[in-house]
Prior knowledge:
Layout: H1 2-7, H2 16-43, H3 46-53, H4 56-67, E1 71-72, H5 75-94, H6 99-124, H7 132-154, H8 164-191, H9 194-197, H10 204-214, H11 222-240, E2 244-245, H12 246-250
Antiparallel strand pairs: 1-2
Amino acid sequence: MLIISLIFKMKFPKKLSEWKILANTSLLMIFFAVGFIALGNKYADSGMVTIIQATVPIIMVIIECFILKNYKLSSKGIIGLIGGFIGIIIIVLFGTESISADIKGIIFAFLGSLSFTVGSLYTKNRYVEGSAIAQTAAEGLFASALFFIVGKLSGDFVLTNITLKSMIPVFYLAIMDSLIGFISYNYLMKIWKSSKVSTYAYVNPVVALILGTLILREPITIGKVAGMIIIIGSVILIQKDKEIKLEEENA
């Protein structure tokens, strides 16, 4: 993305304040979010981690309603929130045969979802001048530098461990996730409601469970399926809830 930006002379931000916004966004939505999710996948299987990531819309609603106080939920939305938490509890208690082995993964996955959600809300109402591709390139470069430093300090970054087989999914994620997905997500966050954009999380658990079973031979337990259904149903219930803006209530 950086090469493309330079070749086509795309516009980068000029103000220091805008570069600070990009740095903060990179920390929250890439470094911490991706880092915690990577750790989550280390201790728990991909299906469970992705199910936990489906709580992003729920976290987003909680922050907007109870912290930012942009609007309040009706009884339908409250039921959805409670249902979402019940779904998470079911996954934690019944989603795997060995809960103790997965609890770290669950915690890391949740922290990754929390960081990504906070980053989404942070960047939503902050204007940064320049090309979306150039901005994403700068954010990615900043996070990459941090990952490299942490990897070297922790001893996890070893050049001899890099193989062609291990790089194939990296290149895939670079194109589909970073280039297409991240740019599209940031663009939609500017023009749509954050709660509407976060509905991408609906389909992720289903895809993860299916692919995890077919490709990685990960087991599908009743707890995983039950938790997934409850979380997705709760999120849909929240999204269908009619938002009651505080100013309308006061009027």
